[in-house]
Specification:
Layout: H1 2-13, E1 16-21, E2 25-30, E3 39-43, E4 47-50, E5 68-69, E6 77-78, H2 81-99, H3 103-106, H4 111-127, H5 140-144, H6 155-172, H7 179-192, E7 194-197, E8 203-208, E9 216-217, E10 223-228, E11 231-236, E12 247-248, H8 257-268, H9 283-287, E13 302-304, E14 314-317, E15 323-325, H10 326-348, H11 352-369, H12 375-390, H13 394-411, H14 417-432, H15 436-454, H16 459-473
Parallel strand pairs: 9-12
Antiparallel strand pairs: 1-2, 3-11, 4-8, 5-6, 7-8, 10-11, 13-14, 14-15
Length: about 475
């Protein structure tokens, strides 16, 4: 109770308050006005773990300079002595916990397991030994207050968590930590942890931010969570007025309504009824999810007559009335997905020419099945754009990027950072091909969005503003 009072006092100083409103439970409300781009709140993670395929410093999440591995566990990286010193209170015990496992068990230690190990270590250091001080927004009571949705989870997922929990208890050997408690906290992490991403929305790690986890979801959010290293920064996307609930998106908004509904149900166990999801029956939204009709000379596409996502949906051609089920989509995607996975594997392995050849075949197959303006086609073309850029075919990259723009604009709201990054790439490509007018137009749009979503302290935003200044003076440098 005392912790709740202290948290409310802290939030009141930030212009915020917590209210309990059913069925949402806890909600975060503004007690003053915030303008677009204004920082609403900042929070350090209670615990976090880098997950990037490239080495990152565990303390600051940077990859600058020479990184060194911890000589003892041979898992954790640091950028220097200072970061290693700052992380030592936690990592000393994490390192010891890892060394308790036999080598065959160490291979099973996933980032999710390490996150939970660090969670219980931090709890012990705060509660028992008081080595790490507590604050109104940094204490284990906030973690305990998180929703777990354990009773809604499938048995196979709980069994998997039980197996991971066994590893956690072996590593920590804390008398007060039993299997049930570990499983419950795995459930909390699964539906409360945040993906830590960079400005290009590439994943860097996962972290637990107890206060940010109070914020509810909307597919039309008025705020956004971005990361400066591992520091979570909550920014206003649109004017947030006194009395408004602060809302963020838990998921990638560049997906169709059906896929957003599925993602939210699968991970967060609720059905979103925001105004954006209520557009599901509109034809423009359905095009983004549509299979092409191949009945004779029909050029229609299949739309879903049901309101929400279900596994037995009926799809009906908007022109000839032919009816199919989602099984048709699953069969179609089943033929394309293996080829798409091959292309992605080649891309991430650096085999760009091979990947380009593969993904061109994927595009052809996808266009044979899906509407040209569909989400599925856009995803393939987005990868193609990157591959054309990697292989130096700027004209092909620009043509592909131009095809993506209207789909991105249809899917995303005006101040979405994904749209901002798309405009940034489009502007650079237009500039590289000598179209100064379109280059300025799209780079300006990118700057307008990224100023709001990320501020002006990010290197990419600084570079963007510099490019615009050069353009006004007489020409972009392109790539």
């Amino acid at each position: 109770m005392e912790d709740d009072v202290e948290l409310q006092r802290f939030l009141e100083a930030e212009g915020l308050t917590i209210k309990t409103i059913l069925p949402k439970r806890r909600c975060l409300f503004a007690t003053r006005d915030f303008i677009p781009g204004e920082v609403i709140m900042r929070e350090e993670p209670y615990v976090c773990i880098p997950t990037s395929s490239n080495p990152l410093c565990q303390q600051c999440f940077k990859s600058d300079g020479a990184l060194s591995k911890c000589a003892s566990c041979n898992i954790v990286w640091y950028c220097g002595v200072e970061c290693q010193r700052l992380d030592w209170k936690l990592h000393k015990l994490e390192c010891r916990a890892i060394s308790r496992l036999e080598e065959k068990w160490q291979e099973l230690v996933t980032p999710e397991i390490r996150l939970l190990v660090k969670l219980f270590i931090r709890r012990k250091l705060q509660r028992d030994k008081q080595v790490i001080p507590t604050t109104p927004i940094d204490n284990f009571n906030l973690v305990e207050a998180m929703i777990d949705h354990q009773y809604k989870m499938e048995m196979k997922k709980l069994v998997a968590y039980a197996m991971k929990a066994e590893i956690v208890t072996r590593m920590l050997q804390q008398p007060d930590l039993d299997l049930d408690k570990a499983v419950n906290n795995f459930c909390k992490v699964s539906c409360n942890a945040n993906a830590i991403v960079d400005i290009a929305m590439e994943p860097l790690g996962i972290g637990l931010y107890p206060v940010m986890s109070i914020i509810n979801h909307s597919c039309l959010p008025n705020a956004i969570l971005v990361f400066e290293g591992k520091l979570a920064v909550l920014r206003a996307l649109v004017p947030v007025e006194k009395g408004d609930e602060v809302l963020i998106s838990y998921i990638d908004l560049g997906r169709t309504t059906r896929h957003r509904q599925h993602d939210l149900n699968a991970k967060y166990h609720f059905t979103c009824t925001c105004p954006h999801c209520c557009k599901f029956a509109e034809i423009n939204d359905q095009i983004l999810d549509a299979l092409r009709c191949k009945r004779g000379k029909c050029d229609g596409f299949f739309v879903n007559k049901d309101r929400f996502y279900s596994h037995d949906q009926k799809l009906e051609c908007n022109k000839c009335g032919l009816v199919k089920t989602l099984e048709a989509e699953r069969r179609a995607k089943g033929k394309i997905d293996p080829l798409c996975d091959k292309g992605k594997s080649e891309f991430f392995s650096g085999n760009f020419q091979e990947a380009l050849s593969t993904v061109k075949r994927v595009e052809e197959a996808t266009l044979d099945v899906f509407h040209p303006s569909s989400f599925s086609v856009m995803i393939v073309r987005n990868l193609l754009t990157k591959l054309y850029m990697k292989t130096g075919d700027i004209q092909a990259a620009l043509e592909c990027c131009r095809l993506i723009t209207p789909v991105r604009e249809r899917l995303l709201q005006r101040n979405d950072p994904v749209l901002g990054m798309h405009y940034y790439v489009r502007g650079r490509l237009e500039g590289a091909k000598g179209d100064e007018e379109d280059a300025i137009k799209y780079l300006t749009r990118a700057g307008d969005i990224l100023r709001i979503t990320h501020g002006t302290n990010f290197a990419l935003v600084e570079e963007l503003l510099s490019q615009l200044a050069k353009e006004q003076e007489g020409g972009l440098s392109g790539f």
